[in-house]
Amino acid sequence: MGGESVGTPASSKGIGSTTGLEHVQGTGEGQKKRGRSPADKERKRLKRLLRNQVSAQQARERKKAYFSNLETRVNDLEKKNLELKEKLSNLQNENQILRHILKNMTASRGGGNSGTNNAE
């Protein structure tokens, strides 16, 4: 029938024109990428490489400062640990001396009362 043949070419033109527009748009985007000159690409590449080098150098400096700070902290903590060990040793010696003195005082008072005041 006549309506079918008229509708078919119109609908195929509509589909074709949509596809054609997409193809043209895709080509336009491709032209923008192809439009960059090799000099521009090289300039961008060198700029990116320079940024990368600067960033890498900064990262190395941060790492160096971090480890330097860490080493200082380790040295301080080791020194503090040594001081605390010496203090512990001195206090243990003092405690032993005081216990010995206390034992001698309790023994000289009369023996086995264990320090209680039952006489009072």
Automatic annotation (TrEMBL):
Tell me the PANTHER family matching this sequence. Answer: TRANSCRIPTIONAL ACTIVATOR HAC1
Q: Where is this region: Disordered?
A: 1-62
- Lineage, uppermost ranks: Eukaryota, Viridiplantae, Streptophyta, Embryophyta, Tracheophyta
Q: Which InterPro entries match?
A: bZIP, bZIP_sf, Hac1/HY5
Tell me which Pfam families the record gives. bZIP_1
Q: Please tell me whether the keyword rRNA processing is annotated for this protein.
A: no
What GO cellular component term, any one, is given? Answer: nucleus
Please give the family membership noted in the entry: Belongs to the bZIP family.
Q: What is this protein called?
A: Transcription factor hy5
Provide any one GO MF term from the record.
DNA-binding transcription factor activity, RNA polymerase II-specific
Location of this chain's protein in the cell:
Nucleus
For whether the record's keyword set contains Transcription, the answer is yes
Predominantly, its location class is nucleus
Any GO BP annotation: response to far red light
Keywords assigned by UniProt, alphabetized? DNA-binding, Nucleus, Transcription, Transcription regulation
Q: Where is the BZIP domain?
A: 42-105
Q: Give me the stretches of Polar residues compositional bias.
A: 8-20
